[in-house]
Amino acid sequence: QVQVEDSGGGLVQAGASLSLSCTVSTTPEYVVGRYSMAWFRRVPGGDREFVAGVDERGDAIYRESVKGRLTAVRDNDSKFFYLHMNNLRPEDTAIYYCAISPKAQPSRERNEYEWWGLGTQVTVSP
Prior knowledge:
The protein is mainly beta.
């Protein structure tokens, strides 16, 4: 069993920073250190879209619009996964979800991810 809990959202002004956290807990047969992790978001009225993902080594890929502002970092020892967000924009307003895939390489497709958090709301005011 794999459980994912995402947190850290809030209301901030444009230009501010915010960090999201994802905690993963598992039963012993699951080795999270071998899996890829990702952050997705669902903007108001939109579909869930890929934001950032990291492979088992921690190498990351990003959505073009967040490059240079958002950084995804994983800590395999403590089973934490973070999304550090700087210079936030109103268009970053969304519910952010942590997702885990049993594959080593992250995918930009949400159906590749098997375990999901419930989401955390990020609201950026102008």
